[in-house]
Amino acid sequence: MALALAKPRPAVAGAQRAAMRGTAVQARPVLPERRAAARAPLAVSARATKQQTAYICIDCGYIYDGSEGPFDKLPSSYRCPVCSAPKRRFKPYAAGGGKNDAKSMNARYERMQSEGGSKGGSKVDGGAFLAAGVAAAAALAGLYFFLSSQYN
């Protein structure tokens, strides 16, 4: 009694041959569609946090609000539109924005002066320079009298 093997169906036989050759098509699971709108607020909020830093001119109190682009991207030849101070005279200003009218700028400038930021940008006390000048003048006078007594 001979067992008769059933002939494979043609579709199954073709799939077996394709699997042997490595050309079988893999079925991909159906994934839900992703919404592109869900990512947009993240990008906008990230950009907004970068531009919140305002820069203030320490010579006149003008606040650069980013109207010409990010402050870091401005050329080094940028100058304050009010007092023509160079870009290096601007410092980050954390107190937020404000108006750039004369009254507000004067108030900010006075506040910076009272906090210790002098107009020249130096934090050294003026008395130290005076004492150094007097000491240098006394040393020069002493040297003059010493040398004139030696060669007379």
Automatic annotation (TrEMBL):
Gene3D superfamilies, alphabetized: 2.20.28.10
Keywords, in A-Z order: Electron transport, Iron, Membrane, Metal-binding, Transmembrane, Transmembrane helix, Transport
Molecular functions per Gene Ontology: iron ion binding
Record-linked PANTHER family: RUBREDOXIN-LIKE SUPERFAMILY PROTEIN
Lineage top rank: taxon: Eukaryota
Ranges annotated as spanning the membrane: 128-147
InterPro entries linked: Rubredoxin-like_dom, Rubredoxin_dom
Keyword Transmembrane: yes
Organism: Chlorella sorokiniana
Protein's name in the database: Rubredoxin-like superfamily
Alphabetized CDD domains for the sequence: rubredoxin (cd00730)
Domain Rubredoxin-like residue range list: 52-93
